[in-house]
Design brief:
heterodimer, A: about 775 residues, mainly alpha, 4 domains, two-stranded antiparallel ribbon, two-stranded antiparallel sheet, about 45% helix, globular, B: about 475 residues, alpha/beta, Alkaline Phosphatase, subunit A, nine-stranded mixed beta sheet, 13 helices, disordered N terminus, DUF1549 (chain A), Planctomycete cytochrome C (chain A), transmembrane helix (chain A), transmembrane (chain A), membrane (chain A)
Chain lengths: ~775, ~475
């Protein structure tokens, strides 16, 4: 059995590679070859799911001709409309109605019908179906709903290359595709990469010098350990989780007034820094309040499920909103922790995945017992900055238990958290998802196809957390490991990191994903260990250079034959600029702040109520906090961050878009933060007693994190010299007015402005804000 | 017509290309960017389902200007004339009329629901003899150019979900806005301007705010996001170069950047580097194009007179209407205006008069202006809010002071140009102005119709995200044939 499965995976892998390979060769479809063994999971289900399940799938209400193609027993049996025919006759495509309908030229018979707006199957897909039926039309359970297996680490030809098990899995696929891995990236680029990936900040000059000077064999590992031990590691790791948890500093909805949920954010940073194991990290967030003798820290962690939007609009129908909060928690649970689109079963049975609407409401039942109301209060003072159930955080707490909460004043501080009512609120299926259309009553439970919720678990959130971390849960470990892979390699092994279901992408390296998941689980859900494993791999350390050949054969870098390269997340773009100029204020946590923002954005969009109606910019050191501390007002999220694809925190988000737009160019060119940083760094450089070449080199190292090439230096130096000659004093004076940080009085204005322009040019290089 | 069709077809290629590359707004000097390898690369998120057929049929409209009246203006004081309510002033809303309508928390506990007629008189205008309230005399004058729909209805009863529903086809947010769908479907007509722009203004009436999610690209590429133009110093965020840096200096810097970036490209081969260079060029062109558009100083006195003197005050509704015409004239596909302040729960007669004064003249002027320029045929203008208002008073009813609560069952909007029948009134409500009795138009139908006028079959404009093909009209929507010319 074991060997057989292994063989299947292997075949699949080869088939996939072949497909990929042939797709990108010039000939296209005609040259694609149908694999020898057809896999239902990898070859057939994607076609059926995409083209057939809409009408012949799990959703009973839209099923046509009473035919289901997602279940073998239903697909094999005689057709209801025509009992002499069968949709699938294993071994005999010509007798199978499915094959006939997808291959016919008769437009009245063809499937999918023209009216469905679904494209017809390609000739290649038709051939796949033909061969699959011929080989017995065998079904398999969807790969993601089978518990991950412990695959052996594969052998590779180039045994010298792998540094850990990850590399064996990756190299095996490269070798099958006749691709060679890239050499290791040069030390400077490598340091930039790990520094950004592990702390979200560029390395300091001292760190660069230290690493360049360290010729020992484990210099890289030492640096990894060092970076992971900094408190900035927790900040870096937290950012992704803030997206997942839809963390924000306002309640959302129309008045969108302030909330004080930031102590929960401080806890996330703390948890990552303390390396709280993933099972605890999640259990506390899901059910910290239900743990025996729950600590204040565990209570605070449950703020996770209260980060959703909460209305303050007078006159709303209370139950409508309460239902929307429970719905948000349910959807977040599905997407963030299970990596499935559970929300699709909110109004009807899921059209593609085996989740019934009833099961949706069974999951919903876990979150439906919170002591909360839809509208607790309209816009008001500090007493409205959290909603029941809530906890108070006193200065005493901060001294003793919640030491990581950055509370600097003696004001009352409240945070929304989870507490259930003693009396269980009955849960009903909501017909079409409408809050007031009660259907049958349901009990708390989970989708059977993932893992049944047996009577061994308590029927509360704590039980749900136990279920999540059951060894047989097929999704929990895979989903998190995949999210982490996405963080370090730019995209997940399953590219659709929020959808492991049938409509999602198939894993590019299924065995590796399983191996990582099992390894992670078996080593105590140790997040730091997982992270280190990834960044220590030879796969991760490769140079990102893409030769034309590699670009042609693998444009998306699916096979990982080159290192990751990509633009930084919005917050880290800001951090890079501030850190390299020396302006960055390294304070961790505390209330969010309002740095520079173009005027009028909040004012033009507000109802006029609440303390966020007008933008009150901060001054002094708080202007230079990391991007993750910029106050997020949901209805008008921070402009410069949004332009770089930051989440608006409206809903759970597990993956950001990464776009490249002219508005981003305008931010880099004209955002006062960038200009001010250029000015401040220029002023610092000019205080050095060194040549202008040395000054420019230093700035280059701070911003690009490497020494400039001779030609680069020549271009920048000549630009500087040229500016010195042509700059007018009046222009220089104007240019230097940007930003609130003082300009040193002792510097010549023209010299400073000329250097500022050179530094600013460096900030605008594509490479500056790119992980290289 | 055939030429339009061909033109749109040509746009498709450009749009597809742009979207694939995340290249940015409009077309750029693409020749230099033709890297064949890029085409084989799949999109990063979900695959874009490009339907080669778009436009699915010859479009009537090329562009849309949507004058959104944020907060929900009362239909009973604007376009739905109900003399019966005046007759029955102060009498109780019959339970049979109300039926099972759920009320908002603001009036649900009200002991009585006294009917209230319009404080303002109505007159009939034009050949269509449409009834329009005295608060909108200028719109009255263009009655024969517009199509009034009195039978709009929606699913939502609160502002946030209702606005979101109108703009994105779903109440919960994080879906692409209508303008984003149109940008995605048809691309840009102007290489120096975004395809979807947003203009905000504010009246003195009770306001409810607007939210950037209303012009969000949702799961579509962010080049389809609505770009907010503002009346401030920076008409687009971060558009202006810092003081002390002239165009020549900026050009010089961009040249250095291009040179340095190119060195990096030669070493790393990442196509994103070249894209970045092109984006900087696009940004540079926008820096010239946008201020030119914003400059109203060259508008003739007649135009200023037509829109009213406020059109010279940046940030007013009138100024935004004039700007909308200019943007649209320059090929911006979708210009979305929001005028806030229409939420009259109390003090309606006074507040609404102020709101009407803000918008009446300029809205009418926009239609007339487009018509005079021969652009109305290809530009669809829409005027309306997110739901209607109750026929009974919220709070105490006094003759000159009353309020109206939210009412999703029926409300009025109007459309002009873009192949919509001019000079008609479509749909009917009962004599209480509470229920629709003829030709209901649901929000999904409204969306389907707008897309139809742009040459798009609303069922075919889809995008696959998180395993599902989404459309603006979700799983519903029928084109309202009765209003199509």
């Amino acid at each position: 059995m074991y060997r057989k499965l292994y063989y299947v995976w292997l075949t699949i892998a080869i088939c996939m590679l072949y497909t990929l390979y042939s797709c990108h060769s010039s000939g296209g479809i005609a040259e694609e070859q149908v694999p020898d063994t057809i896999s239902y999971n990898f070859n057939i289900r994607p076609i059926l799911s995409d083209k057939c399940y809409k009408c012949h799938g799990p959703d009973a209400s839209h099923r046509e001709a009473d035919l289901r193609l997602d279940l073998p027993e239903s697909a094999y049996k005689a057709l209801k409309d025509n009992p002499s025919s069968h949709a699938l006759v294993p071994g005999d495509p010509m007798q199978s109605e499915v094959y006939r309908r997808i291959s016919t030229k008769d437009t009245t018979e063809q499937m999918p019908p023209a009216s469905s707006n679904l494209k017809r199957l390609s000739p290649y897909e038709v051939q796949l179906i033909h061969k699959w039926i011929k080989q017995g039309a065998k079904y398999e359970k969807h790969w993601a709903f089978v518990a991950p297996r412990n695959y052996p680490v594969p052998q590779v030809k180039n045994a010298a290359w792998p540094k850990n098990a990850i590399d064996n899995f990756v190299l095996q696929k490269m070798e099958q595709a006749s691709l060679e891995p890239n050499p290791e990236a040069d030390k400077e680029r490598l340091l930039k990469r790990i520094s950004l990936d592990l702390t979200g900040l560029p390395p300091s000059l001292a760190l660069m010098d230290e690493f360049l000077a360290d010729k020992s064999a484990n210099a890289y590992e030492k640096m990894v350990d060092k970076l992971m031990a900094t408190p900035q590691y927790g900040e870096k790791m937290a950012l992704h989780w803030l997206d997942v948890a839809r963390y924000a500093d306002s309640h959302g909805y129309q008045d969108d007034n302030y909330r004080t949920q930031w102590p929960w954010r401080d806890w996330v940073i703390h948890a990552y820094n303390e390396n709280l194991p993933y099972d605890k990290f999640i259990t506390w967030q899901l059910a910290g309040d239900q743990l025996p003798n729950a600590t204040k820290e565990q209570l605070l962690a449950t703020g996770f499920n209260r980060n959703h939007k909460i209305t303050e609009e007078g006159g709303v129908i209370d139950e409508e909103y309460r239902v929307s909060y429970v719905t948000d928690r349910t959807n977040t649970f599905g997407k963030a922790l299970l990596g499935v689109t559970l929300e699709c079963a909110h109004c009807h049975d899921h059209k593609y995945d085996p989740f019934s609407q009833k099961e949706y409401y069974q999951v919903y039942a876990f979150f439906n017992n919170v002591k909360e109301v839809g509208l607790q209060s309209t816009v008001g003072g500090p007493e409205t900055y959290a909603k029941n159930p809530m906890m108070k955080i006193s200065n005493e707490d901060v001294k003793k238990i919640l030491t990581f909460v950055n509370k600097r004043d003696t004001d009352k501080l409240i945070v929304s958290i989870m507490t259930d009512s003693d009396k269980v609120r009955p849960t009903y299926i909501l017909k079409r998802g409408n809050y007031d259309a009660h259907g049958d009553e349901v009990q708390a439970g989970t989708p059977k196809s993932i893992l049944p919720f047996t009577n061994n678990y308590p029927k509360n959130r704590l039980g749900l957390a136990e279920w999540l971390f059951n060894k047989n849960n097929p999704l929990t470990a895979r989903v998190f490991v995949n999210q982490m892979w996405q963080e370090f390699f730019g995209k997940g092994i399953v590219k659709s990191s929020g959808d492991f279901g049938m409509q999602g992408d198939l894993p590019s390296h299924p065995e590796l994903l399983d191996w990582l998941a099992v390894d992670f689980r078996d080593h105590g859900w140790n997040i730091k260990r997982l992270v280190k494993q990834m960044v220590m791999s030879a796969t991760y350390r490769q140079s990102a250079a893409a030769t034309p050949e590699k670009l042609k054969e693998d444009p998306d870098n699916t096979l990982l034959a080159r290192g990751p390269r990509g633009r930084l997340p919005a917050e880290f773009v800001r951090d890079l600029v501030l850190a390299s100029s020396g302006l960055l204020n390294p304070t961790i946590g505390g209330p969010s702040v309002n740095p520079y923002q173009p005027p009028g954005l909040w004012e033009n969009a507000t109802s006029g109520r609440g303390i966020l109606a007008n933008y009150k910019q901060v001054h002094g050191p708080n202007l230079y906090r990391r991007g993750m501390y910029t106050l997020i007002k949901r209805t008008v999220p921070p402009a410069s961050l949004g332009i770089f694809d930051a989440s608006n925190r409206d809903q759970c988000e597990v993956k950001r878009l990464r776009t490249n737009t002219p508005l981003q160019a305008l931010v880099m060119l004209n955002d006062p933060t960038v200009l001010e940083s250029a000015r401040v760094l220029a002023a610092k450089l000019l205080q050095d007693k060194s040549t202008s070449t040395a000054k420019i080199t230093k700035a280059f190292r701070l911003i690009l994190c490497r020494h400039p090439e001779q030609k680069e230096l020549a271009i920048l130096t000549s630009y500087y010299t040229d500016e010195l000659k042509t700059m007018k004093k009046a222009d220089a004076e104007k240019l230097l007015t940007v930003g609130e940080y003082p300009v040193p009085a002792n510097l010549d204005k023209i010299t400073l402005a000329a250097m500022m322009k050179v530094v600013d040019t460096m900030y605008n290089l594509e490479e500056a804000i790119t992980k290289t | 017509m055939e030429k339009d069709f061909l033109e749109n077809r040509l746009n498709i290629n450009r749009r597809r290309f742009l979207s694939r590359l995340s290249l940015g707004i409009g077309s750029v000097a693409l020749g230099s960017l033709l890297i064949p390898d890029l085409f084989s690369g799949k999109g990063d998120e979900a695959e874009a389902d490009f339907i080669p057929g778009i436009p699915n049929f010859a479009p009537k409209a090329k562009r849309v200007i949507y004058l959104f009246q944020d907060g929900a203006p009362s239909q009973l004081e604007s376009f739905d004339y109900k003399p019966k309510l005046r007759e029955m002033m102060g009498q109780e809303l019959p339970a049979s009329v109300r039926g099972n309508q759920i009320l908002t928390g603001m009036t649900a506990k009200q002991a009585s629901f006294p009917l209230v007629g319009s404080f303002y008189d109505f007159k009939q205008y034009g050949e269509s003899r449409a009834w329009i309230s005295d608060m909108f005399p200028h719109i009255g004058k263009i009655a024969d150019d517009i199509c009034i729909i009195k039978s709009l209805n929606t699913d939502a009863i609160n502002h946030d979900p209702a606005l979101t529903f109108f703009q994105t086809g779903a109440q919960q947010g994080n879906r692409p806005s209508m303008g984003s769908w149109v940008s995605y479907g048809l691309g840009s007509e102007n290489k120096n301007l975004p395809a979807f722009t947003v203009l905000l203004s504010k009246g003195k009436g009770n306001g409810q705010g607007v939210y950037s999610k209303l012009w969000s690209n949702g799961f579509l590429d962010s080049i389809h996001q609505g770009v907010q133009f503002s009346s401030g110093e920076d008409p687009i965020l971060y558009l202006n170069d810092p003081e002390g840096l002239n165009r020549h200096e900026r050009r010089k810097m961009l040249d250095k950047l291009a040179e340095l970036n190119d060195m990096n490209y030669k070493e790393f081969g990442d196509p994103e580097i070249n894209t970045k260079v092109q984006q900087y060029e696009m940004a540079y062109r926008m820096q010239t194009a946008v201020p030119e558009i914003m400059d109203v100083s060259k508008e003739s006195d007649d135009i200023v007179k037509m829109y009213g003197p406020e059109c010279l005050i940046p940030g007013t509704y009138a100024a935004n209407c004039l700007l909308a015409r200019k943007l649209s004239e320059n090929g911006v596909r979708f210009v979305q205006l929001y005028h806030q302040g229409w939420d009259q729960h109390s003090n309606l007669p006074q507040e609404m008069a102020g709101q009407a004064k803000d918008v009446d003249q300029a809205s009418a002027a926009l239609v007339t202006d487009l018509k005079q320029r021969g652009l109305l045929d290809e530009t669809l203008v829409i005027w309306g809010g997110e739901f209607g208002r109750t026929n009974y008073s919220q709070g105490k009813l006094e003759k000159a002071n009353y309020g109206r609560d939210h009412h999703p069952r029926c409300f009025s909007i109007w459309m002009a140009g873009g192949g919509i029948k001019p000079g008609i009134v479509y749909g009917e409500t009962d004599e209480f102005g509470y229920n629709i009795v003829k030709d209901p138009v649901h929000v999904h139908d409204f969306h389907a119709t707008i897309l139809n006028q742009l040459g798009i079959d609303h069922k075919k404009l889809t995008y696959k995200s998180q395993g599902r093909r989404y459309r603006l009209t979700d799983v519903a929507g029928n084109v309202v044939k009765g209003i199509i010319a």
